[in-house]
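Q: What does the assembled structure look like for these inputs?
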Amino acid sequence: MKVKVISRNPDHYLRETRKDLHRLPRNYDPSLHPFEANREYVRALNAVKLERVFAKPFVGNLDGHRDGVSCIGKHPKSLSLLASGSYDGEVRLWNLAQRICLKQSKAHDGYVRGLTFNSDGTNLITVGDDRTIKTWNTEATTLKDESPINTVISKTSITGISHHISDPKYATCGEVCQLWEESRSEPIRSFRWGFDSVHNIAFNPVESNVLGTCGNDRSIVIYDMRRTGPVRKVVMTMKCNQLCWNPMEAFVFTCASEDFNLYTYDSRYLRSPIIVHKDHVSAVTSVDYAPTGRQFVSGSYDKSIRIYNNDKVHSHEIYHTKRMQHVTFVQWSLDNKYIISASDEMNIRIWKAKASEKLGVLNRRERAALEYNEALKKKYESHPQIRRIARHRQIPGHIHKAQNEIQVQKQKNLRKEVNRRQHSKPGTVPFVPDKQASVIEEQE
Amino acid sequence: MNLKLKRAAEADDAVYNSDGVEDDDDDIPENVHNRLLGAVSKLYKKKRVDAPTRKEPTLEVSEFHLTSARDRKKKSGVNVSSLTKVLDKKATHKDIKKQVSGATSKSKRLDKPVERLEAEKVERAVGYENLKKDLGKWNAIVHHQRAAEQVSFPLPKSQEIHTWDDEAGFLSKFRTPTLLELQTAEILKASREYRNEVVDEEKVDKEPPIPLTLKEMMEQRALMARTRAQRRYKETKAARQNKIKSKKFHRIQRKEKIKAEMKEFEELQKKDPEAALKKLDQLEKARAQERASLRHRTTGHWAKSLQVRAKYDKEARIALAEQLQKSRELTRRLKQDSSSDEEFEENNDSDTEAKPTDDGKTFKTSKLDFDDMFYKIEDKLTEKVEKKVEKLKKQIDSTDLLPREGERSTDCSPKKGRKKNRESNVEDDLGAGFAMKKKVVRSEIDEALDETTSKDSTVQSANGRWSVEQVVLPVPVDDIEVEPPQEKPKTTDIEPVRTLQVKPKFLKTVVPTDLAGGEDLDDDDDETTAANGEAATHNMTIAEAFADDDVVREFQSEKEEEIKKSKIDDVNLALPGWGSWGGHAVKENKRKKERFIVKFPTVLPRRDENKGNVVINEDHDAPVKPLLVSDVPFPFTSVKDFEASIRAPIGSTFLPQKAFRKLTAPTVQTKMGTIIEPMSGDHVLKI
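A:
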């Protein structure tokens, strides 16, 4: 009779050094770990509840402006620098990490209409209502160094500015669109299509000689900077306030419209937008893409900020605070972690891009646990209980009311259309999809 | 208007002419007169545009600077024709003149340029097409990124090309090897492995090629022939011995074998105790395996003693039957294994020696040949089966086919033992091809029988399965065959109460009910009949046990209650006295009352509605229902796929670390504190 004794090789359970991890043998036989799906469901439920518990997106605010903030600009090379301009013509430079104002100066008479850093971030270029383009040195350390290093007086009024991604060129818009070189005081080219003024201009960061503008004639115009200038115009039912190119998809841009929606276009097929992003209950004033190109943030006149996936109609996140008024400008930080919003009531706010994210360095196991939670949430996202919790948000009363109102209006319009269709000759009242309804025409 | 002007001019001319004639001697200076003439003529002629004079360079071209064609003709009177006039005089210039005249005659006037707005439109259209083309080059990478399972930002830069500005920087990458390194390198170089040569053992052996003498060669050949012959002899002997059926022979042989092994073992114990231990282990294991395999069936002491008692003792019978059943299962599997082993061995043989089989074919045949063989065998089998079936039919028709009692279950060969199974007789003879075919047929018949004979539940079990003596036949056999399938719904209406109360007719017959399918039921052995008898008695006991209480009725009422409970009541909206006189004695109008009853809309019929004595609880998952997914979510197309995806765990509790990490990897990965730059040109080039 052979008697088996327990014998173990110490190599299997002893560590070589004290700093080694303890080896934990584990038997993955599925019969030993039953009810996988059920247990993971509970875990997913807990994960999604915890996500809501930890969803505290507000990080901090920068106060100092003495009037509403009209525009902000992110530094292309530094994550902690931010510039902002206000309605009283003041321009400030902020350190985001320390939440202090590094510099301030009265740059313009009237509004600061736009500001941008140059491609290496050494200079800040601002435009204002006083028809001047001023260049400021951002690296000068003295706080009182208030004079601009260059001032250009333009012949026409200027309402927006955008800098080329790499070259020392920038474009301004106003009565006409002009292309400037940093070292010259005359525009090197000026484009114009029609006689309406243009209030927003944006360089494509990928295909860098393409420009997009939003005009007062409810138009979006695409420019080719090298040859022809303006190449295509789309006229929409309502004016677009801002346009932003997707930094990872060269031909895609999104514009924030007055009709509460955002429209994502493929610039090669402008007949109709690819997606209409809904949910805002007032005019959308600003939009900015995340540097990953997967999401974008929008600020609206309804005092809220929403975050959308670039391929989804509805937003997956809404940020608001009691004190935040009409949002004038939003920016997504270049490390994909923060959102910066400027609003009418003189404050600049910093938000987390992912509301429940834990900031700071995570250790390995912590990260693995968080990733596991994310994966679980994704796996069980279609389950009603989990979906309900994940989608639940508190929203301000006025937004709630407005949503209901819009719903009623929509129902009414729909009903009317159906009625009209019923009582008219078949085919005379066509079915117009939502996407095409917003576009009036595409002009060559 | 024009006419008027003309007339005025003529009149003027007339005056002038008359003046000229009349005041010939008035000396008016000529130039003054000419100026006057010019001014006057200007009054009545079309206004001319002066040719531009350039003063300073400008980029702008104004439309006001353009001149009319006639103007130019007059003022800058340089024409091609006037130039060619000079060439007239020389004969050598004849060709040039010809060319010029040809060109002037052929040339057409250019079209009027398109209007500015139109021109711009065309330009923009062309520009847009070019832009589209430019943007299109990003298409591939964008789609790649969108479809990627995981994307990490900032995007990896394509390989940078290093350039060393100074020579020193480049040279710093290298260093002189040490003495030790040099020595090792030398040694390595000398070795064959280093040179990456294939070391072939045969080659190594052959390296010193020692030529054999004739004698040696002959010896070698003889040796080889001898060994071959010996092997052949042993093989044939083993084959012969395997075929011997005598039990006694095998027993003796086994004992001899064991003895030899014991001897060997003892010797080994003296020589090498460790090896002996191993051997002992092996022997033990083999013995245990044999014990476990139940190869003995009924040959052991225990089984033999049981056999004696089996005639009178039911338990013994059952135990014996169980033992047989078990052994059958075990041996069947073993047999398959061994057969496959044999095949494998054969294959091996053929591989090594390419020995021709009795068909004259080698086993080294292609797959196609195998298929052919398979089909041939199948054809043969079907033929055989048909023959057999016909034979059986004849037998059934002619004689009473009683089970052959003589065949004993204790028969030792596994092949015969399996014969006891109702259907295995043919199967054994003819192989698996028939089994498959038969199965298909049987399933059809099963359906038909269910349809037609559901009046009596016992029939189904009696369907040739184990009741041979007592087969319930409510309908004649012929009817079963002919009965059309349209009668199916009729069976559902039968009340279960009544069906049970009907006394079944038990006929003493062995005629199988499913003759049409070509089944045979020829032999049944004592085991099955015993079991059959038992089952019959079992049925009887149930019927007897519940003879007094009306279980079925009770169940019926229970079901009705259940149905009532699940029904939602109609709403009566009738108000007494509304629209008619009310009061104690007043009779309500029945029609009116009915009018005010709002009937609950008919929902789907209950699942157990026509199922007889079955209550199906449809609300068993009511508490779970709100937690379940109502629709198949997007990427999935079928419920099955979705369920599978949910069932598969992703946690480290259930999966090893590697899989866990892979399954939980985030789709978008970013690096902390790093600026993510927009996509740039080198990303396009990479893909």
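The longest strand of chain A covers residues 229-236.
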